[in-house]
Amino acid sequence: MKAIGYVSILLLLSCVLKVCAQTAGPGMQPATRHHLMPVPASVRFNPGRLAVTKSFSVAARGHVDERLRAGVERAVRRLEGRTVLEFPQGLAGDANGAALVVECKGPGQTVPSVEEDESYSLDVSDKQAVLRAATVVGALRGLETFLQLLEGDRDGYFIPAVQIQDVPRFRWRGLLIDVGRHYEPLAVLKRNLDAMAAVKLNVFHWHLSEDQGFRIESKKFPKLTGLGSDGLFYTQDEARAIIAYASERGIRVVPEFDIPGHSTSWLVGYPELGSAPGPYKIERGAGIFEPALDPTNEEVYKFLDAFLGEMAALFPDAYLHIGGDENEGKQWDRNPKIQAFMREHAVKDNRALQTYFNQRLLKILNRHGKRMMGWDEIFQPDLPKDVVIQSWRGPSSLAEAAKRGYDGVLSAGYYIDLIYPASQHYLADPLPEGSTLTPAEAAHVLGGEATMWGEWVSPETIDSRIWPRTAAIAERLWSPRTVNDVDDMYRRLAVVSVQLEELGLTHEKNQAVMLRRLAGGEDNGALRTLASVVEPVKEYRRYEVRPQTMLSPLTGLVDAARPDSDAARRFAGEVDGLLSDAPRFETYSRDIQDTLTGWRDAGPQLEALIDRSPGLAEARPLAGDLSRIGTIGLEALSYLTKGVAPGNEWRDARLAALEEVAKPKAALEFPVIPSLRELVVAAYELPQLKTTTPADWRKRVKQLAAPAKK
Ligand code: ACM
Asked: Active-site residue among 73, 151, 326, 607?
């Protein structure tokens, strides 16, 4: 019991201050722990509250139009859903008696644009809330904030008294959805537009063509979808409906037609546009493919002029995205006609040939009244200054473009398909502290976009790959740079994630649906335990370790697992508490013991379930691993609790076992491994507590538990 004496006494001293600080601030103070996301530019809570009762009504002063009316209506219905109170229908005639008054100066822009004024202010007192905005879109943004302010207690629902002044930090806050790899039905897009609006995103980047599918109807070139889409595409009427739906919510729609590479699906119907004779088939794999449009063929420009003209008329946004990424030019290298053209016109390499292509494309787009946007590969210093660069390969190309006077949008850092935790995306900043850009250069950084690349998402899983992590990105793009506390972000994200469900998003609930199916409808508590502590492998390793095609069902355990395990984060927090907060050692220890026991015992139950569920066969090694980490953790916890340190053989054997568990299986990995390594190392290092401070000891454990850098 000696070492635990050290844990208790030494850690107690170091924690007294911290604990006292946390318990300060009683009773009647204004609310401060709000769950607003994104955090407004300025928030000041006051004492008092506006009760939300069944007589809750909204009045409008100033400009009122259909878009505003519909926006208010949607907000009121959501408030009803959340409170289970039935409110009066329609706008109230008398502003004095209304709970919420919306005061809008004017309509704003009829075609949503990057110049739109989205600012608003919200003043809530115990008598009334007043939302003021220059435009309808500003009012819509404020309504979302109003909804996020709702709280409840024994006295009922209420909005805390508050004064908010809000304006976005960046004008371009987007979400790309790739519907080329996998088609997503209209309902999926609509619910994601709703979610975007809820967190104040304002650009839907619609990635409409890929090697694996061409998804938008062309009346001029029907073979694009006729042969390139498996029948899964949007008609022009459907596209107009999406544009209208987005516009109602203050969201622009920027279409992308990715050329000259990523274009296999175009060539299935129109092989004559390609740089090799064909025939072409819709690509079913994932990766980078060779087919590319032939930039030396005049027919290609005629085709693009007609096609992009048609699209320019369909999509009202000022910008049209031409992709331009990942064209390796292998078909160009092998085509004698293209090689002859390059010699004849002194085009020195494929990059220069693509620049030539882009210059031609630019003229076509300008003729159709559009500004050209493309991935950072298209960036060339001699492009005109109204081209917009979307940076995916790193933030440096964005800064480089800005320095040369080009507008840019950051996506590097916001690749949500890479399955990184929200915390990582959250800290990626389009204009980080210490940026060397002048204010004039910085003004060219328009914002950022999360990218939902579609290789491994289906209508059933896509929400869980986008949400809730994209809400953290939305906050990065809207809120001041100084809003960057990761723990507080996660606290609010948990609340917002559940609120998104009222819009029909399935990111939370579909895991249960999928696990039930995998378990054949059986009781599957052990499977839920496993799914809660595994994450799909990061980056693009999924395809390497578990190859599939675009035709494969996305219904495996890896699809049910979610990117940023709450359970793993909670466990990491508890282990940290256990090792650094001695006064609460007992509490943490009990919680951790329960968790570890659950893992240990889930293993055998899972084995039995897997025997009857062949769809889960690939998860069998994970069942053993789950038991193993439960057991290892319990052993470590027992040493820590008893204050008896194990020998180095025990430590080495357990760390080696954890290394085996850390190897991905079924394209899944355990994000709790670092916490378990800490428990094992902490047990072994217990005697060191006698010779050092608790804080230094904690640091030492962390360092020793960190895996060696490869
Ligand atoms: C990209 O990820 N190739 C834009």
From this structure: 326
Neighbours of 669 (CB within 10 A): 23
Distance CA 304, CA 289 (A): 21
Do 430 and 395 meet the contact criterion of CB atoms below 8 Å apart?
A: yes
Cβ-based burial of 306 (10 A; exposed 0-12, middle 13-18, buried ≥19): middle
Q: How far is the CA of 549 from the centre of ligand 1 (A)?
A: 19
297/274 Cα distance (integer angstroms) = 9
Ordered by start, the domain boundaries in the chain are 33-166, 172-303+312-484, 510-705
Ligand 1 pocket: which of 209, 262, 328, 375 to mutate (most atoms within 8 A of CB):
375
3-state secondary structure 320-342: EECCCCCCCCHHHHHCHHHHHHH
Q: Measuring from atom 2 of ligand 1, which residue has the nearest CA?
A: 392
Structural element, H or E, at residue 42: strand 42-52
What pTM was computed for the model? 0.95
With 0-12 / 13-18 / 19 or more C-beta atoms within 10 angstroms meaning exposed / middle / buried, residue 638 is middle
E-assigned strand segments in 168-294: 172-178, 203-210, 213-214, 252-257
Residue nearest ligand 1's atom 3 by CA: 325
Angstrom distance (rounded) from CA 351 to CA 343 = 14
The minimum-distance atom of ligand 1 relative to the CA of 326 is: 3
* 326 catalytically annotated: yes
Residue 375 Cβ contacting ligand 1 at under 6 Å: yes
The response to whether residue 326 sits with its C-beta less than 6 Å from ligand 1 reads yes
Ligand 1 centre to CA of 379 (Å) is 14
Q: What is the pLDDT of residues 428-438, one digit of tens each?
A: 999 999 999 99
Q: What is the pLDDT of residues 355-374, one digit of tens each?
A: 999 999 999 999 999 999 99
Assign domain 172-303+312-484 to its CATH architecture. Answer: Alpha-Beta Barrel (3.20)
Per-residue pLDDT tens over the stretch 186-235: 999 999 999 999 999 999 999 999 999 999 999 999 999 999 999 999 99
Q: What angle do CA 444, 114, 78 make, to 5 degrees?
A: 130
Q: List all residues 6 or more positions away from 615 whose beta carbon is below 8 Å from its beta carbon.
A: 518, 555, 556
Q: Does CATH place domain 33-166 in 3.40.50.300?
A: no
Task: Give the model confidence (pLDDT) of 469-483 as tens digits.
Answer: 999 999 999 999 999
